[in-house]
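Example for tutorial group B:
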């Protein structure tokens, strides 16, 4: 079974930084893209950043220039470096994988609180 395990969430003051990580395991099939989204209570999910199988990254306007998505260890770990954090970045952050088959898997989420 595919497993995605996030880490690195926590509390930080506005203007600070956090680095989220996502360890992906248990899959042998090709991935279409991997990335992060977040969800605030009572709101829709917001896609933040994604990286495709060719290593190309894309970002939501809300985080462009502040967040950096990287991937290492043969695509087994995904990182999201979050800089210049704002109060409105407070949310639960999830990593996700979309496989070529269309199957989507996500992690359990990690809380980020900016005050």
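The residue assignment follows.
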């Amino acid at each position: 079974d595919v497993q995605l395990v996030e880490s690195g969430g926590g509390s930080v003051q506005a203007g600070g930084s956090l680095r989220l990580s996502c360890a992906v395991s248990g899959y042998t099939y090709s991935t279409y893209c991997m990335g992060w989204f977040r969800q605030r209570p009572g709101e829709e999910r917001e896609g933040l950043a994604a990286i495709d199988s060719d290593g190309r990254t894309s970002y939501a306007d809300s985080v462009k220039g502040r967040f950096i998505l990287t991937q290492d260890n043969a695509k087994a770990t995904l990182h999201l470096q979050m800089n210049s954090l704002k109060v409105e970045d407070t949310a639960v952050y999830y990593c996700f994988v979309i496989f070529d088959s269309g199957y989507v898997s996500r992690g359990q989420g990690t809380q980020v609180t900016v005050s």
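The mean pLDDT is 93. Compare this with the pattern of hydrophobic and polar residues in the output above.
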